Each structure stands twice: as structure tokens, then as C-alpha cells.
Amino acid sequence: MKTEKASCPDASPFKPTLAQVEVSKPEPLLTREGVAEYLAVCPRTIDRLVRSGRLPSIKLGPGRNAALRFRRSTVDAALSRWGGR
After folding, report:
1. DSSP-derived pairing of the beta strands 29-30 and 58-60
2. Looking at the whole model, is its pTM more than 0.85?
3. CA 64/CA 35 separation, integer angstroms
């Protein structure tokens, strides 16, 4: 009994090299002061927005004193929800 190997119609023998693959750079993270400057508000306002849950942040490290960072796209999305800019 002879079996045939199924071929995938989308399979291509071409394998791109790293130079041919489009690699997107990760979005740079902003500090609390950077977000405050971007929104033209006091850094304490950023703290209040984070505590109230209105501004998502990324926590770097354990504990209460962990550094917070923010993605600009997330800040822009939150800003558009508030009806600003």
C-alpha cells in the first residue's frame, strides 16, 4: 500500500532572511514625569489617574515603590476616552 504525502497549498520553499522580515521596534515607555509633560499636568495628577484606574500603567519591579511606566498609545487611548486632544 502506497501513501501519498499531503502538501499544503500555501507552503512555499522560500524562507525569508532576517533582513527581509519587517521587525517592528517596541514602543518606548514613558515615565510619570514624561506623561505629565506630554499632558501638560502635574506629576501628582498622573498618580491620581493611576490610582483611580483611569490611566493604565506598567509596574516594573515588586512592592509599593516599583517604577511605573506608560505606553504613549495607552495614554492617547485614555485621553480620547476622556474627550481630550
Report:
1. unpaired
2. no
3. 20
Residue closest to 27 by CA, chosen among 78, 85, 80, 75: 75
Report CA torsion sign: 35, 79, 72, 39.
Answer: negative
Helix residue spans in the chain (DSSP H)? 32-39, 43-52, 72-82
Q: Does residue 73 surpass a pLDDT of 90?
A: yes
For 2-49, what is each residue's pLDDT tens digit?
A: 555 555 556 666 676 766 667 778 888 999 999 999 999 999 999 999
Strands of 58-60's sheet in order across: 29-30, 67-71, 58-60
Q: What's domain 29-82's architecture?
A: Orthogonal Bundle (1.10)
70 phi, psi to nearest 5 deg: -135, 140
